Write a sequence for this structure.
């Protein structure tokens, strides 16, 4: 049981490049989400999913896309990276949208030059 | 809108001593959850303790306990017998129990950096 895994751990992009941050969980959790963590701003919700095929926007969705084709995977796509997207990204999951405890992945540190 | 405030950006404590981290929150809801998460230098976000607002009894997990004052909207974390491995950033977070989707997101404080000194 690996919990929530994220790849890569570190990534450097140039402005305008695209990439996908991977997130997977093996706990059969329905609810998955992406947060970004910035100094002085705490964690902010980007997108979330309450089950396979269902996604919705959080508080800072601009510049990011998500999809949820399986229960296990919830990738986050940056279509055209900008320096403002330099951050640490966390994926989290919980059993359902109606349970409270979320489990976090180890994070991805992204730098956009 | 709900907010979470941690008024102590940094704290330090000697090994084996006790330290209390403060957290206050603002909400008009009556039914919600409160959490303390720990983020060590490895960056992994680890759940330390959770409290359900409708429960009067303060939650306890080994050396970690909370002082939940619902009327005052205060949720402090006490770490007893501090250990070097407790050195981390500690985040207080709030979640509505009612509603769905975006209304169920975690709302975070800005964190308190705790250093445990030998």
């Amino acid at each position: 049981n690996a919990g929530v895994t994220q790849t890569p751990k570190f990534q450097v992009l140039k402005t305008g490049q695209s990439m996908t941050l991977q997130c997977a969980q093996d706990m059969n959790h329905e609810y998955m989400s992406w947060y970004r963590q910035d100094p002085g701003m705490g964690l902010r919700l980007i997108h979330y999913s309450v089950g396979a095929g269902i996604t919705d926007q959080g508080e800072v969705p601009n510049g990011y896309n998500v999809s949820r084709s399986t229960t296990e995977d919830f990738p986050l796509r940056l279509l055209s990276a900008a320096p403002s997207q330099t951050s640490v990204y966390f994926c989290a999951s919980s059993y359902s949208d109606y349970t409270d405890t979320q489990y976090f992945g180890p994070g991805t540190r992204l730098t956009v030059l | 809108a709900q907010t979470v405030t941690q008024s102590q950006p940094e704290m330090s404590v000697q090994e084996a001593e006790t330290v209390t981290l403060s957290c206050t929150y603002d909400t008009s809801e009556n039914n919600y959850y409160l959490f303390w998460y720990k983020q060590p230098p490895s960056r992994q976000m680890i759940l330390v303790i959770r409290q359900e607002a409708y429960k009067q009894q303060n939650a306890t997990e080994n050396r970690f306990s909370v002082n939940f004052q619902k009327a005052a909207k205060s949720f402090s974390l006490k770490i007893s017998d501090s250990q070097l491995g407790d050195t981390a950033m500690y985040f207080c977070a709030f979640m509505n129990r009612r509603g769905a989707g975006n209304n169920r997101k975690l709302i975070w404080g800005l964190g308190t950096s705790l250093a445990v000194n030998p």
In short: Chain A touches chain B through 25 residues (CB under 8 Å).
